[in-house]
Amino acid sequence: VNNPKAVMVIFGATGDLANRKLFPSIYRLYRNKKISDNFAVIGVARRPLTNEDFRNNVKKSIEDFDDPHIDKDEFASHFHYNPFDIQDLTHYQGLEKRITELDEKHQTDGNRLFYFSMAPNFFGTLADNLKSQGLTQTEGWTRLVIEKPFGHDYESAKKLNDQIRSAFTEDQIYRIDHYLGKEMVQNIEVMRFANALFEPLWNNKYISNIQITSSEVLGVEERGRYYDGAGALKDMVQNHMLQMLALIAMEPPIKLTPEEIRSEKVKVLRALRVFEENEVDEYVVRGQYDKGIIDGEEVNSYREGTGVDEDSNTETYVAAKLMIDNFRWSGVPFYIRTGKRMKQKSTEIVVEFKDLPINLYYGNEEDKKPNLLVIHIQPYEGITLHMNAKKGDANATSTPVALTYDNSTDKMNTPEAYETLIYDCMRGDSTNFTHWNEVALSWKFVDVIANVWNNKKAEFPNYESGSNGPKAADELLLNDGYSWWDVS
Ligand code: BG6
């Protein structure tokens, strides 16, 4: 469907996400002519703003764009503000009226996209009320986009899911994991399933281990209050890290439909070994940042941050060894790590291949260089294949060489994750959103670890800001005879 039409209702429209990601993404869709005049956005939040205030916020959020052919006022005129109290049922009637008016004005065929981008404790009530007040009944389609966190453990996620499911069907629900909107995350599948080269090797016969790293330089900044109750395991592992794992490990889908792809991902998560409580220490490492030096400046420790308990037991770093117990992957460790306040901002996946039975070309064990396939997800986007080739000298030795595909040359035109995902939702393509079954299995995996950690105080802080994380994360791999590849 080209130029999908809809009235978009954003709950939490004064929030950080709306301003930082959603408005600019809608702008890019508009600029790139993916959406045309048949759209309107209703910003909903508690605060009493006028349309004009709201439009000014929108314009501010796109001030870095400089497209001569786009009239920003014209763009902003599609945005309307509607102050709102989630508990007050009369407000829903007002909102209904507003949606209907804009639907007529912009001829959006009765299509409604509700976007929940506010404190998750209101998600359930809001869904209930939207239904009971008739806002989900329309001539066109109704869809719900819902931001994380989707619960804080399996039980709460299930409760939330039941609540939203009483107002929306599973195929109307689009659970956001913004990593799935990233160009290079989407490239994992294409690379795997559009090349004859990798598939025969993509298994425990030829791959020794896989490493997925997502490191950040920023600390928790202003989000201490949320983060201290969450931690890296729930903030990053339950969603983004396990989603990348599923894409790397899944079987080829029989078709590229959302159902087929998601069902293969679900199978990976079902095969993911859930640890026993007494195994957690052996397979999972947690860390919390101490003070340190970043860009030449001294920075505070996590515990000194605003909104953070001064004796906090919350982890800002997780490394783990995951096992997928199926035919393809049995015996292959998947090492994951993610942390804040690390040396660099970088997300990448390294696939390390097994050594040849005999290598004729290196003299010393330590010169041995395995083949690596590196998928650079961000900030650098590309793929590198590390191989060995002849050195330009008389000796019959081999030297590592790198074949590189660079995807970042056209960065300006590469769609942003949120831009891709909003567009997908408007077109009704749920491939890159998480199905409830994936969410449920991810929580079940994470819950065991979270339980053990909650009940046992860690010796925090245990890594310096600006470092590569705690020592124990290196030992996790050393014990298996591997080490983290620092390839960027
Ligand atoms: C979010 C987490 O989901 O992902 C943040 O809540 C984290 O804590 C962010 O910083 C990382 O996203 P990205 O796209 O910058 O890698």
From TrEMBL:
The active site is at residue 240. Its EC number is 1.1.1.49. One of its GO terms (cellular component) is cytosol. It catalyses: D-glucose 6-phosphate + NADP(+) = 6-phospho-D-glucono-1,5-lactone + NADPH + H(+). Catalyzes the oxidation of glucose 6-phosphate to 6-phosphogluconolactone. InterPro entries: G6P_DH, G6P_DH_AS, G6P_DH_C, G6P_DH_NAD-bd, NAD(P)-bd_dom_sf. Substrate binds at residues 178, 182, 216, 235, 340, 345. GO terms for biological process: glucose metabolic process; pentose-phosphate shunt, oxidative branch. Belongs to the glucose-6-phosphate dehydrogenase family. Pathway: Carbohydrate degradation; pentose phosphate pathway; D-ribulose 5-phosphate from D-glucose 6-phosphate (oxidative stage): step 1/3. Keywords: Carbohydrate metabolism, Glucose metabolism, NADP, Oxidoreductase. The keyword Ligase does not apply. The keyword Ribonucleoprotein does not apply. One of its GO terms (molecular function) is glucose-6-phosphate dehydrogenase activity. This is Glucose-6-phosphate 1-dehydrogenase. NADP(+) binds at residues 46, 85-86, 148. Residues 9-187 form the Glucose-6-phosphate dehydrogenase NAD-binding domain. Residues 190-485 form the Glucose-6-phosphate dehydrogenase C-terminal domain.
